[in-house]
Amino acid sequence: MDIAPERAIRWITSNPAKALGVLDQTGTLEAGKMADVVLWNGNPFSVYAKADQVYIDGALAWDRMNPEVNPVTDFSLGTAAATGGAR
Amino acid sequence: MIRLSALLAVALFTAALAQAETIAIVGGKVHTVGPQGIIESATVVAMDGRITAVGANAVVPEGATVIDAKGKTVTPGLFAARAGFGLGEVGLSADPVDAGQSGGEFTASFDVTDAFNPRATHIAVNRIEGITRALIVPKPLVSYGEPSTAHVISGLGAIINLGDPGDNVDKRAAALVVNLGADGSGFAGGSRAAALLVLRRALDEAVAYRDDPDGYERDEFVHSARDLKALVRVLDGETPLLVGVHRASDIEVLLRIVDEYAIEAIIAGGAEAWMLADELAVANVPVLLDPTGNLPGNFDRLNARRGSASILVSAGVDVGFLTSRDATRNARNITQQAGNAVADGLAWDDALRAITLTPAEIYGVDDAVGSIEVGKLADIVVWPGDPLELTNFPDAVIINGESIEMVSRQTLLRDRYLQSGKPPAYRR
Protein backbone atom coordinates (compact mmCIF):
# COMPACT_ATOMS: atom_id res chain seq x y z
CA MET A 1 0.00 0.00 0.00
CA ASP A 2 1.23 3.46 -0.81
CA ILE A 3 0.51 5.82 2.04
CA ALA A 4 2.18 9.21 1.70
CA PRO A 5 4.41 10.19 4.65
CA GLU A 6 2.61 13.51 4.96
CA ARG A 7 -0.60 11.58 5.53
CA ALA A 8 0.88 8.99 7.91
CA ILE A 9 2.49 11.66 10.10
CA ARG A 10 -0.98 12.99 10.88
CA TRP A 11 -1.83 9.64 12.51
CA ILE A 12 0.71 10.32 15.23
CA THR A 13 0.35 14.12 15.48
CA SER A 14 -2.79 16.02 14.55
CA ASN A 15 -5.30 13.15 14.44
CA PRO A 16 -4.80 12.03 18.09
CA ALA A 17 -4.90 15.70 19.14
CA LYS A 18 -8.16 16.09 17.26
CA ALA A 19 -9.60 12.93 18.82
CA LEU A 20 -8.70 14.19 22.29
CA GLY A 21 -10.16 17.61 21.59
CA VAL A 22 -6.88 19.51 21.95
CA LEU A 23 -6.12 20.21 18.30
CA ASP A 24 -6.54 23.93 18.95
CA GLN A 25 -3.54 23.75 21.34
CA THR A 26 -1.18 21.17 19.79
CA GLY A 27 -0.85 18.54 17.04
CA THR A 28 0.46 20.82 14.27
CA LEU A 29 3.21 23.41 13.87
CA GLU A 30 1.21 26.62 13.77
CA ALA A 31 1.76 30.07 15.21
CA GLY A 32 -0.11 30.40 18.48
CA LYS A 33 -0.06 26.69 19.42
CA MET A 34 1.96 25.13 22.25
CA ALA A 35 5.56 24.62 21.09
CA ASP A 36 5.64 20.81 20.95
CA VAL A 37 8.41 20.24 18.42
CA VAL A 38 10.75 17.38 17.48
CA LEU A 39 13.98 17.88 15.55
CA TRP A 40 14.84 14.66 13.73
CA ASN A 41 18.25 13.71 12.39
CA GLY A 42 16.58 12.51 9.19
CA ASN A 43 13.32 11.13 7.85
CA PRO A 44 11.26 10.31 10.97
CA PHE A 45 9.88 7.19 9.25
CA SER A 46 13.34 5.74 8.77
CA VAL A 47 14.39 2.83 10.99
CA TYR A 48 17.60 4.79 11.61
CA ALA A 49 15.86 8.02 12.69
CA LYS A 50 16.68 9.60 16.01
CA ALA A 51 15.10 12.50 17.79
CA ASP A 52 17.90 15.04 18.22
CA GLN A 53 15.87 17.49 20.27
CA VAL A 54 12.37 17.38 21.77
CA TYR A 55 10.58 20.51 22.98
CA ILE A 56 7.43 20.31 25.10
CA ASP A 57 5.60 23.60 25.67
CA GLY A 58 8.71 25.29 24.35
CA ALA A 59 11.04 23.73 26.95
CA LEU A 60 13.90 21.49 25.85
CA ALA A 61 12.99 18.04 27.26
CA TRP A 62 15.54 15.90 25.36
CA ASP A 63 18.83 16.64 23.68
CA ARG A 64 20.60 13.67 22.15
CA MET A 65 23.93 15.49 21.87
CA ASN A 66 23.83 16.85 25.40
CA PRO A 67 23.00 14.05 27.88
CA GLU A 68 23.19 16.36 30.92
CA VAL A 69 19.93 17.89 29.74
CA ASN A 70 18.12 14.55 29.75
CA PRO A 71 16.07 13.10 32.59
CA VAL A 72 17.08 10.03 34.63
CA THR A 73 14.28 8.40 36.59
CA ASP A 74 14.70 7.65 40.31
CA PHE A 75 14.56 3.99 39.33
CA SER A 76 17.52 4.20 36.95
CA LEU A 77 19.65 6.54 39.06
CA GLY A 78 23.10 5.01 39.57
CA THR A 79 22.54 1.88 37.44
CA ALA A 80 25.21 0.71 35.02
CA ALA A 81 22.87 1.42 32.11
CA ALA A 82 22.40 5.03 33.24
CA THR A 83 26.03 5.72 34.09
CA GLY A 84 27.42 3.89 31.07
CA GLY A 85 29.71 1.72 33.18
CA ALA A 86 29.60 -2.06 32.92
CA ARG A 87 30.23 -2.93 36.58
CA MET B 1 23.71 -50.10 20.66
CA ILE B 2 22.11 -47.86 18.09
CA ARG B 3 22.08 -44.32 19.32
CA LEU B 4 18.66 -42.78 18.86
CA SER B 5 20.30 -39.39 19.16
CA ALA B 6 22.38 -39.98 16.05
CA LEU B 7 19.22 -40.60 14.07
CA LEU B 8 17.57 -37.48 15.41
CA ALA B 9 20.60 -35.44 14.49
CA VAL B 10 20.30 -36.05 10.77
CA ALA B 11 20.06 -32.72 9.05
CA LEU B 12 17.71 -33.18 6.14
CA PHE B 13 18.21 -30.10 3.97
CA THR B 14 16.89 -31.82 0.92
CA ALA B 15 16.30 -29.26 -1.75
CA ALA B 16 13.07 -29.90 -3.59
CA LEU B 17 14.47 -31.90 -6.46
CA ALA B 18 11.11 -32.50 -8.06
CA GLN B 19 11.14 -28.86 -9.04
CA ALA B 20 13.74 -28.32 -11.74
CA GLU B 21 13.25 -24.56 -11.83
CA THR B 22 16.18 -22.40 -12.82
CA ILE B 23 16.11 -18.80 -11.65
CA ALA B 24 18.49 -15.97 -12.52
CA ILE B 25 18.38 -12.77 -10.48
CA VAL B 26 20.05 -10.22 -12.71
CA GLY B 27 21.70 -6.87 -12.08
CA GLY B 28 21.02 -6.28 -8.39
CA LYS B 29 23.37 -5.05 -5.69
CA VAL B 30 24.11 -8.35 -3.99
CA HIS B 31 24.99 -8.54 -0.31
CA THR B 32 26.30 -12.09 -0.27
CA VAL B 33 27.17 -12.05 3.48
CA GLY B 34 29.78 -14.56 2.28
CA PRO B 35 33.35 -14.47 0.97
CA GLN B 36 32.29 -12.49 -2.13
CA GLY B 37 31.16 -9.59 0.05
CA ILE B 38 29.06 -6.96 -1.68
CA ILE B 39 28.85 -7.00 -5.48
CA GLU B 40 27.46 -3.80 -6.99
CA SER B 41 25.82 -5.43 -9.99
CA ALA B 42 25.69 -9.19 -10.09
CA THR B 43 23.74 -12.17 -11.31
CA VAL B 44 22.74 -14.95 -8.94
CA VAL B 45 21.71 -18.26 -10.48
CA ALA B 46 19.71 -20.91 -8.65
CA MET B 47 19.20 -24.36 -10.14
CA ASP B 48 17.46 -27.36 -8.61
CA GLY B 49 17.23 -25.64 -5.25
CA ARG B 50 20.82 -24.54 -4.91
CA ILE B 51 22.91 -21.52 -5.83
CA THR B 52 25.05 -22.41 -8.84
CA ALA B 53 26.62 -19.07 -9.78
CA VAL B 54 27.20 -15.66 -8.19
CA GLY B 55 29.07 -12.83 -9.85
CA ALA B 56 29.18 -9.82 -12.10
CA ASN B 57 29.79 -12.06 -15.11
CA ALA B 58 27.68 -15.08 -14.20
CA VAL B 59 25.94 -16.48 -17.26
CA VAL B 60 22.15 -16.71 -17.32
CA PRO B 61 21.33 -20.33 -18.25
CA GLU B 62 19.10 -21.12 -21.20
CA GLY B 63 15.46 -21.21 -20.19
CA ALA B 64 15.98 -19.61 -16.79
CA THR B 65 13.24 -17.56 -15.18
CA VAL B 66 14.81 -14.11 -15.05
CA ILE B 67 14.14 -11.70 -12.19
CA ASP B 68 15.26 -8.20 -13.11
CA ALA B 69 16.94 -6.76 -10.02
CA LYS B 70 18.48 -3.63 -11.56
CA GLY B 71 18.44 -0.86 -8.96
CA LYS B 72 17.39 -3.35 -6.31
CA THR B 73 19.09 -4.99 -3.35
CA VAL B 74 19.61 -8.74 -3.09
CA THR B 75 20.25 -10.47 0.26
CA PRO B 76 20.25 -13.98 1.64
CA GLY B 77 16.93 -15.13 3.08
CA LEU B 78 16.40 -13.91 6.63
CA PHE B 79 16.78 -16.31 9.55
CA ALA B 80 14.49 -15.90 12.58
CA ALA B 81 16.71 -17.04 15.42
CA ARG B 82 13.80 -17.85 17.75
CA ALA B 83 10.26 -18.21 16.48
CA GLY B 84 6.97 -19.96 17.16
CA PHE B 85 6.09 -20.70 13.54
CA GLY B 86 3.61 -23.47 12.93
CA LEU B 87 2.89 -24.09 16.61
CA GLY B 88 -0.55 -22.49 16.85
CA GLU B 89 -2.77 -19.95 15.15
CA VAL B 90 -4.29 -17.62 17.74
CA GLY B 91 -2.92 -17.56 21.26
CA LEU B 92 -6.08 -16.87 23.22
CA SER B 93 -8.50 -19.08 21.34
CA ALA B 94 -9.83 -22.57 21.89
CA ASP B 95 -7.53 -23.74 19.14
CA PRO B 96 -4.56 -25.55 20.64
CA VAL B 97 -1.25 -23.77 20.84
CA ASP B 98 1.34 -26.49 20.61
CA ALA B 99 4.43 -24.62 21.72
CA GLY B 100 4.19 -25.60 25.37
CA GLN B 101 3.10 -28.46 27.59
CA SER B 102 2.66 -28.93 31.29
CA GLY B 103 2.82 -31.84 33.65
CA GLY B 104 5.73 -33.85 34.88
CA GLU B 105 6.25 -36.37 32.15
CA PHE B 106 8.52 -34.73 29.57
CA THR B 107 11.12 -32.02 29.77
CA ALA B 108 14.28 -32.29 27.66
CA SER B 109 12.73 -34.75 25.22
CA PHE B 110 9.64 -32.65 24.50
CA ASP B 111 10.09 -31.92 20.81
CA VAL B 112 7.79 -29.33 19.20
CA THR B 113 8.81 -30.44 15.73
CA ASP B 114 6.09 -33.07 15.53
CA ALA B 115 3.47 -30.38 16.15
CA PHE B 116 4.86 -28.10 13.44
CA ASN B 117 2.26 -27.09 10.87
CA PRO B 118 3.83 -25.73 7.66
CA ARG B 119 0.38 -24.57 6.55
CA ALA B 120 -0.12 -22.18 9.48
CA THR B 121 -1.48 -18.81 8.36
CA HIS B 122 1.41 -16.78 9.78
CA ILE B 123 4.06 -18.63 7.76
CA ALA B 124 3.05 -16.78 4.60
CA VAL B 125 2.80 -13.54 6.58
CA ASN B 126 6.44 -13.89 7.58
CA ARG B 127 7.95 -15.30 4.42
CA ILE B 128 6.63 -12.59 2.12
CA GLU B 129 8.64 -10.21 4.33
CA GLY B 130 11.82 -12.16 3.70
CA ILE B 131 12.02 -14.79 6.47
CA THR B 132 13.09 -18.08 4.90
CA ARG B 133 14.48 -20.12 7.84
CA ALA B 134 13.82 -20.21 11.55
CA LEU B 135 14.46 -21.99 14.78
CA ILE B 136 11.08 -22.95 16.18
CA VAL B 137 11.06 -23.45 19.92
CA PRO B 138 8.92 -24.76 22.74
CA LYS B 139 8.07 -22.22 25.39
CA PRO B 140 6.93 -22.52 28.97
CA LEU B 141 3.19 -23.00 29.28
CA VAL B 142 2.01 -20.45 31.79
CA SER B 143 -1.54 -20.53 33.14
CA TYR B 144 -2.27 -17.23 34.78
CA GLY B 145 -3.73 -17.42 38.25
CA GLU B 146 -2.71 -21.04 38.73
CA PRO B 147 0.49 -22.51 40.12
CA SER B 148 2.95 -22.99 37.30
CA THR B 149 3.54 -26.50 36.08
CA ALA B 150 5.94 -25.34 33.36
CA HIS B 151 9.49 -26.58 33.37
CA VAL B 152 12.90 -25.00 33.65
CA ILE B 153 13.77 -27.20 30.66
CA SER B 154 11.12 -26.55 28.00
CA GLY B 155 12.32 -28.99 25.34
CA LEU B 156 13.75 -29.21 21.85
CA GLY B 157 13.51 -26.80 18.95
CA ALA B 158 14.12 -27.39 15.25
CA ILE B 159 15.37 -25.54 12.20
CA ILE B 160 12.61 -25.23 9.63
CA ASN B 161 12.22 -23.56 6.25
CA LEU B 162 9.23 -21.48 5.23
CA GLY B 163 8.95 -23.01 1.79
CA ASP B 164 5.73 -24.49 0.45
CA PRO B 165 4.49 -27.42 2.58
CA GLY B 166 6.63 -30.48 2.01
CA ASP B 167 10.07 -31.00 3.47
CA ASN B 168 9.99 -28.13 5.93
CA VAL B 169 11.98 -29.58 8.83
CA ASP B 170 15.70 -29.12 8.23
CA LYS B 171 17.24 -30.14 11.53
CA ARG B 172 15.72 -31.58 14.64
CA ALA B 173 17.12 -31.08 18.15
CA ALA B 174 18.84 -27.89 16.99
CA ALA B 175 18.55 -26.37 20.48
CA LEU B 176 17.31 -27.30 23.95
CA VAL B 177 15.36 -24.47 25.55
CA VAL B 178 16.13 -23.67 29.21
CA ASN B 179 14.64 -20.87 31.32
CA LEU B 180 16.78 -19.28 34.02
CA GLY B 181 16.46 -16.02 35.94
CA ALA B 182 13.06 -14.76 37.01
CA ASP B 183 11.17 -17.08 34.64
CA GLY B 184 13.11 -20.17 35.68
CA SER B 185 12.70 -19.21 39.30
CA GLY B 186 8.93 -19.27 38.89
CA PHE B 187 9.03 -22.74 37.34
CA ALA B 188 11.45 -24.15 39.94
CA GLY B 189 9.55 -23.13 43.03
CA GLY B 190 10.50 -19.55 43.70
CA SER B 191 14.25 -19.14 43.53
CA ARG B 192 16.64 -18.70 40.62
CA ALA B 193 19.04 -20.88 42.56
CA ALA B 194 16.49 -23.69 42.34
CA ALA B 195 16.24 -23.21 38.55
CA LEU B 196 20.01 -23.55 38.27
CA LEU B 197 19.84 -26.63 40.47
CA VAL B 198 17.27 -28.19 38.14
CA LEU B 199 19.64 -27.62 35.21
CA ARG B 200 22.65 -28.99 37.09
CA ARG B 201 20.74 -32.06 38.24
CA ALA B 202 19.61 -32.74 34.67
CA LEU B 203 23.17 -32.47 33.36
CA ASP B 204 24.54 -34.61 36.22
CA GLU B 205 22.00 -37.32 35.50
CA ALA B 206 22.88 -37.15 31.82
CA VAL B 207 26.56 -37.59 32.67
CA ALA B 208 25.72 -40.66 34.75
CA TYR B 209 23.48 -42.02 32.00
CA ARG B 210 26.07 -41.44 29.28
CA ASP B 211 28.76 -43.16 31.33
CA ASP B 212 26.61 -46.19 32.13
CA PRO B 213 23.33 -46.37 30.18
CA ASP B 214 22.78 -49.99 31.19
CA GLY B 215 22.97 -49.02 34.85
CA TYR B 216 19.96 -46.74 34.47
CA GLU B 217 17.33 -47.39 37.12
CA ARG B 218 14.19 -45.29 36.81
CA ASP B 219 13.82 -44.88 40.58
CA GLU B 220 17.25 -43.35 40.99
CA PHE B 221 16.81 -40.66 38.35
CA VAL B 222 14.41 -37.76 38.17
CA HIS B 223 14.52 -37.84 34.36
CA SER B 224 13.26 -40.53 32.06
CA ALA B 225 15.70 -42.28 29.72
CA ARG B 226 14.03 -40.36 26.90
CA ASP B 227 14.84 -37.00 28.51
CA LEU B 228 18.37 -38.15 29.33
CA LYS B 229 19.06 -39.11 25.72
CA ALA B 230 18.20 -35.55 24.71
CA LEU B 231 20.49 -34.23 27.45
CA VAL B 232 23.37 -36.50 26.40
CA ARG B 233 23.25 -34.75 23.03
CA VAL B 234 23.87 -31.50 24.93
CA LEU B 235 26.86 -33.04 26.69
CA ASP B 236 28.19 -34.31 23.36
CA GLY B 237 28.02 -30.83 21.84
CA GLU B 238 25.35 -31.87 19.32
CA THR B 239 22.57 -29.73 20.78
CA PRO B 240 23.27 -26.31 22.29
CA LEU B 241 21.27 -24.95 25.20
CA LEU B 242 19.15 -21.93 24.28
CA VAL B 243 18.95 -20.20 27.63
CA GLY B 244 16.38 -17.54 28.43
CA VAL B 245 18.29 -15.26 30.82
CA HIS B 246 18.74 -11.51 31.33
CA ARG B 247 20.50 -10.69 34.61
CA ALA B 248 24.28 -10.39 34.58
CA SER B 249 24.69 -12.52 37.71
CA ASP B 250 22.64 -15.33 36.16
CA ILE B 251 24.76 -15.13 33.00
CA GLU B 252 27.88 -15.42 35.14
CA VAL B 253 26.57 -18.64 36.70
CA LEU B 254 25.59 -19.93 33.26
CA LEU B 255 29.14 -19.33 32.02
CA ARG B 256 30.46 -21.41 34.92
CA ILE B 257 28.07 -24.25 34.01
CA VAL B 258 29.08 -24.05 30.34
CA ASP B 259 32.72 -24.35 31.38
CA GLU B 260 32.13 -27.07 33.96
CA TYR B 261 30.18 -29.40 31.64
CA ALA B 262 31.96 -28.30 28.43
CA ILE B 263 28.64 -27.64 26.68
CA GLU B 264 27.47 -25.07 24.15
CA ALA B 265 25.01 -22.39 25.18
CA ILE B 266 23.24 -19.52 23.47
CA ILE B 267 21.74 -16.65 25.46
CA ALA B 268 18.21 -15.61 24.50
CA GLY B 269 17.19 -12.25 25.95
CA GLY B 270 20.43 -11.01 27.42
CA ALA B 271 19.33 -7.52 28.50
CA GLU B 272 22.41 -7.28 30.74
CA ALA B 273 24.71 -9.37 28.52
CA TRP B 274 26.53 -6.20 27.40
CA MET B 275 27.98 -5.94 30.93
CA LEU B 276 29.80 -9.25 30.35
CA ALA B 277 30.74 -8.74 26.70
CA ASP B 278 34.38 -9.78 27.10
CA GLU B 279 33.55 -12.86 29.17
CA LEU B 280 30.95 -13.98 26.61
CA ALA B 281 33.44 -13.52 23.78
CA VAL B 282 36.04 -15.64 25.59
CA ALA B 283 33.47 -18.34 26.38
CA ASN B 284 32.21 -18.24 22.78
CA VAL B 285 28.59 -17.86 23.92
CA PRO B 286 26.37 -16.06 21.36
CA VAL B 287 23.60 -13.67 22.38
CA LEU B 288 20.17 -13.32 20.80
CA LEU B 289 18.64 -10.06 21.92
CA ASP B 290 15.93 -7.52 21.25
CA PRO B 291 17.83 -4.30 20.55
CA THR B 292 14.70 -2.23 21.17
CA GLY B 293 14.17 -3.71 24.64
CA ASN B 294 15.75 -0.90 26.63
CA LEU B 295 13.27 -0.70 29.50
CA PRO B 296 13.84 -2.35 32.90
CA GLY B 297 10.68 -4.46 32.66
CA ASN B 298 11.64 -6.42 35.77
CA PHE B 299 14.57 -6.60 38.17
CA ASP B 300 16.41 -8.99 35.85
CA ARG B 301 16.65 -6.19 33.30
CA LEU B 302 17.63 -3.20 35.41
CA ASN B 303 20.51 -2.45 33.05
CA ALA B 304 18.69 -2.92 29.78
CA ARG B 305 19.92 -0.28 27.34
CA ARG B 306 20.17 0.70 23.72
CA GLY B 307 23.40 -0.14 21.97
CA SER B 308 23.89 -3.63 23.46
CA ALA B 309 24.33 -5.24 20.05
CA SER B 310 27.09 -2.86 19.06
CA ILE B 311 28.96 -3.36 22.38
CA LEU B 312 28.72 -7.15 22.12
CA VAL B 313 29.77 -7.32 18.46
CA SER B 314 32.72 -5.00 19.14
CA ALA B 315 33.85 -7.38 21.88
CA GLY B 316 33.69 -10.31 19.47
CA VAL B 317 30.40 -11.89 20.57
CA ASP B 318 28.14 -13.46 17.93
CA VAL B 319 24.86 -11.53 18.04
CA GLY B 320 21.47 -12.36 16.58
CA PHE B 321 18.08 -10.72 17.07
CA LEU B 322 14.78 -11.97 18.40
CA THR B 323 11.39 -10.44 18.96
CA SER B 324 10.75 -10.46 22.68
CA ARG B 325 6.99 -10.40 22.36
CA ASP B 326 5.19 -12.02 19.44
CA ALA B 327 7.68 -14.39 17.81
CA THR B 328 5.00 -15.94 15.63
CA ARG B 329 3.22 -13.38 13.46
CA ASN B 330 5.83 -10.70 14.09
CA ALA B 331 9.11 -12.57 13.87
CA ARG B 332 9.32 -10.60 10.62
CA ASN B 333 10.16 -7.52 12.72
CA ILE B 334 13.81 -8.59 12.91
CA THR B 335 14.54 -6.13 10.11
CA GLN B 336 13.29 -3.30 12.32
CA GLN B 337 15.42 -4.56 15.16
CA ALA B 338 18.47 -4.80 12.95
CA GLY B 339 17.84 -1.26 11.69
CA ASN B 340 17.40 0.12 15.20
CA ALA B 341 20.64 -1.61 16.24
CA VAL B 342 22.34 0.22 13.35
CA ALA B 343 20.90 3.50 14.62
CA ASP B 344 22.49 2.62 17.97
CA GLY B 345 25.95 2.06 16.55
CA LEU B 346 26.07 -1.41 14.98
CA ALA B 347 27.69 -1.55 11.52
CA TRP B 348 25.10 -2.16 8.78
CA ASP B 349 26.87 -5.26 7.46
CA ASP B 350 26.98 -6.72 10.97
CA ALA B 351 23.24 -6.07 11.34
CA LEU B 352 22.44 -7.94 8.11
CA ARG B 353 24.75 -10.75 9.23
CA ALA B 354 22.86 -10.93 12.56
CA ILE B 355 19.64 -11.84 10.72
CA THR B 356 21.18 -14.17 8.11
CA LEU B 357 24.52 -15.93 8.54
CA THR B 358 25.06 -15.56 12.29
CA PRO B 359 21.95 -17.56 13.33
CA ALA B 360 22.85 -20.21 10.74
CA GLU B 361 26.31 -20.48 12.34
CA ILE B 362 24.91 -20.52 15.86
CA TYR B 363 22.70 -23.52 15.03
CA GLY B 364 25.34 -25.26 12.91
CA VAL B 365 23.52 -25.00 9.57
CA ASP B 366 25.78 -22.43 7.89
CA ASP B 367 27.07 -25.08 5.49
CA ALA B 368 23.59 -25.03 3.90
CA VAL B 369 22.08 -21.56 4.44
CA GLY B 370 22.78 -18.03 5.69
CA SER B 371 24.67 -16.50 2.76
CA ILE B 372 24.64 -16.27 -1.02
CA GLU B 373 27.34 -18.74 -1.96
CA VAL B 374 27.63 -21.35 -4.68
CA GLY B 375 26.51 -24.71 -3.32
CA LYS B 376 24.24 -23.36 -0.60
CA LEU B 377 20.46 -23.69 -0.72
CA ALA B 378 18.93 -20.85 -2.71
CA ASP B 379 17.21 -18.68 -0.08
CA ILE B 380 17.30 -15.24 -1.67
CA VAL B 381 15.34 -12.02 -1.20
CA VAL B 382 15.05 -9.15 -3.70
CA TRP B 383 14.34 -5.78 -2.05
CA PRO B 384 13.37 -2.46 -3.64
CA GLY B 385 15.97 -0.74 -1.44
CA ASP B 386 17.49 -1.01 2.02
CA PRO B 387 16.06 -4.21 3.57
CA LEU B 388 16.26 -2.76 7.07
CA GLU B 389 14.03 0.23 6.27
CA LEU B 390 10.50 -0.16 7.63
CA THR B 391 8.90 0.95 4.39
CA ASN B 392 10.66 -1.61 2.18
CA PHE B 393 9.06 -4.99 1.54
CA PRO B 394 10.49 -7.72 -0.69
CA ASP B 395 9.71 -7.78 -4.40
CA ALA B 396 10.58 -11.48 -4.57
CA VAL B 397 11.43 -14.24 -2.11
CA ILE B 398 13.08 -17.50 -3.14
CA ILE B 399 13.17 -20.46 -0.74
CA ASN B 400 15.00 -23.67 -1.66
CA GLY B 401 15.34 -22.30 -5.19
CA GLU B 402 11.63 -21.69 -5.69
CA SER B 403 9.90 -18.34 -6.00
CA ILE B 404 7.14 -18.17 -3.44
CA GLU B 405 3.78 -16.58 -4.09
CA MET B 406 3.82 -13.10 -2.53
CA VAL B 407 0.41 -13.58 -0.94
CA SER B 408 -0.66 -13.99 2.68
CA ARG B 409 -3.96 -13.87 4.52
CA GLN B 410 -3.10 -10.27 5.33
CA THR B 411 -2.64 -9.26 1.69
CA LEU B 412 -5.90 -11.03 0.77
CA LEU B 413 -7.80 -9.18 3.48
CA ARG B 414 -6.13 -5.89 2.51
CA ASP B 415 -7.15 -6.34 -1.11
CA ARG B 416 -10.70 -7.30 -0.17
CA TYR B 417 -11.23 -4.30 2.04
CA LEU B 418 -9.63 -1.80 -0.34
CA GLN B 419 -12.50 -2.59 -2.68
CA SER B 420 -15.97 -1.23 -2.31
CA GLY B 421 -19.29 -2.06 -3.87
CA LYS B 422 -20.53 -5.52 -3.08
CA PRO B 423 -20.51 -6.76 0.55
CA PRO B 424 -17.04 -8.01 1.57
CA ALA B 425 -17.85 -11.73 1.25
CA TYR B 426 -18.53 -11.18 -2.46
CA ARG B 427 -15.15 -9.54 -3.12
CA ARG B 428 -11.96 -11.42 -3.98
What does this molecule look like?
The complex is a heterodimer of chains A (about 90) and B (about 425). Chain A has about 90 residues and is α+β, with helices and mostly antiparallel strands. Helix content of chain A is about 20%, strand content about 15%. Chain A has helices at about 5-10, 15-20, 80-85, and strands at about 35-40, 50-55, 60-65. A 3-stranded antiparallel sheet of chain A has the order 1-2-3, with no helix packed on it. In chain A, strand 2 (about 50-55) and strand 3 (about 60-65) form a beta hairpin. In chain A, about 5% of the residues are buried. With about 425 residues, chain B is an alpha/beta fold. Helix content of chain B is about 25%, strand content about 20%. Chain B has 12 helices and 16 strands. In chain B, strands 1, 2, 3, 4, 5, 14, 15 and 16 form an 8-stranded mixed sheet that branches. In chain B, strands 6-7-8-9-10-11-12-13 form an 8-stranded mixed sheet. Chain B is globular, with a radius of gyration of 22 Å. Residues about 1-10 of chain B have low confidence and may be disordered. The interface of A and B includes residues 50, 81 and 86 of A.
Gyration radius of chain A (Cα, Å) is: 16 Å
Number of helices of chain A: 3
Oligomerization category of the chains in this entry: heterodimer
Report Rg of chain B: 22 Å
What is the strand arrangement across the widest sheet of chain A?
Answer: 1-2-3
| Count of β-strands of chain B | 16
In percent, how helical is the residue content of chain B?
25-40%
Helix and strand run of chain A? HHEEEH
- Main sheet of chain B? 8 strands, mixed
Structural category of chain A = alpha+beta
Query: Low-confidence spans of chain B: pLDDT under 50, at least 5 residues?
Result: 1-11
Going by helix content, strand content and strand pairing, the class of chain B is alpha/beta
Mean pLDDT of chain B, rounded to whole units? 91
Categorize the overall geometry of chain A. Answer: globular
Mean pLDDT across the residues of chain A is 92
Q: Name the chain pair whose interface involves the most residues.
A: A-B, 14 and 22 residues
Order of helices and strands of chain B: HEEEEEEHEEEHHHEHEHEHEHHHEEEH
**What is the terminal separation of chain B in angstroms?**
58 Å
Number of helices of chain B: 12
Count of distinct strands of chain A: 3
Largest sheet of chain A: 3 strands, antiparallel
